[in-house]
């Protein structure tokens, strides 16, 4: 079986990771930390880096700001960034402060990602090549201009037999009723939901991720898949047959969990595109995300997915 075409749409920004910080510094003081790293970030950026690391062909629609960070991002993606638009503003920068317990705190500028538009996205994607494929749609609560044209994006996908895998990310103002309503509508137009456990339960007003997954699936088209990412507990999913399947996460020495869910997204969707079952796709997502968070520099071990890509 050949690999169905893949694409990523959404937020690519710069991440500056610092830490660990413990305790949180008193205002007006300075502390020293042991680790710093400047790297590509954003949900779409992390997913795209994973596909690159797996050696899988894909398209990507993103934008950058008109500063040195924007040029740095373009260079990091090479030919994939050839047609990225440059917005007349600074590139979005996210500073992540890590803590000894594995948690992290982010400070993010709005920057360029809010200006990504459907008119820009449409010119960056080859719809004919993407027919029957899957698009990972990221950062819904950050890409303000694009969200206003989500219906046009969904119509375009339907017209070209393209399935949308949605990861909204966490709303900046939390899961208000307005944000819940918007997310529920988006899911009605998408075929794969890629949410973490807290997002899933908050969105559905439940505490049980299995119950939440079933609730979300009732909102989606026939044949849809709902995935719940559970961190160290692995992941679960409910598919067209409404049966819950799951995959456990291996025990690893965690180095950096930032972007783990985005890595999972790319690996899961790639496995689906290669014809693997939902359970096999969950295992691929958990395994590759676990390797990514436990290696420096990050590694993405997906030989089975690479084989499928080479056959495509």
Q: Going across the major beta sheet, what is the strand order?
A: 4-1-9-10-11-12-13-14
Could you give a short account of the major beta sheet?
Answer: 8 strands, mixed
Number of strands: 14
Straight-line N-to-C gap: 8 Å
Shape: globular
Number of helices: 12
Q: Mean pLDDT, as a whole number?
A: 93
Q: Which residue ranges are poorly predicted, with pLDDT under 50 across at least 5 consecutive positions?
A: 307-312
- Supply the CATH superfamily name: Ribokinase
Q: C-alpha Rg, in Å?
A: 19 Å
Give the DSSP E fraction (strand runs of 2 or more residues). Answer: 15-25%
CATH architecture: 3-Layer(aba) Sandwich
* Helix content, binned percent: 25-40%
Task: Please specify the SSE layout and strand pairing.
Layout (H helix, E strand, L loop, with lengths): L5 E4 L3 E7 L15 E7 L1 H11 L5 E3 L2 E2 L2 H10 L8 E2 L5 E6 L5 E5 L9 H7 L2 H4 L3 E5 L5 H4 L2 H10 L3 E5 L9 H11 L4 E5 H8 L4 H9 L7 E5 L5 E4 L5 E4 L12 H14 L4 H16 L9 H9 L1
Parallel strand pairs: 1-4, 1-9, 2-7, 5-6, 9-10, 10-11, 11-12
Antiparallel strand pairs: 2-3, 7-8, 12-13, 13-14
Helix pairs in contact: 1-10, 8-9, 10-11
Structural summary, described in words:
- This protein is an alpha/beta fold.
- It has a single domain (8-311), classed as UDP-N-acetylmuramoyl-L-alanine:D-glutamate ligase, CATH 3.40.1190.20.
- The chain has helices at 43-53, 68-77, 118-124, 127-130, 144-147, 150-159, 177-187, 197-204, 209-217, 260-273, 278-293, 303-311; strands at 6-9, 13-19, 35-41, 59-61, 64-65, 86-87, 93-98, 104-108, 134-138, 163-167, 192-196, 225-229, 235-238, 244-247.
- The strands form three sheets. It has an eight-stranded mixed sheet, sandwiched between helices.
- A hairpin with a 5-residue loop joins β7 (93-98) and β8.
- α1 crosses α10 and α10 (260-273) runs antiparallel to α11.
- The longest helix has 16 residues, at 278-293.
- The chain is globular, with a radius of gyration of 19 Å.
- It starts with 5 loop residues before the first strand and ends with a helix.
- The relative contact order is 0.15.
- The model is unreliable at 307-312 (pLDDT under 50).
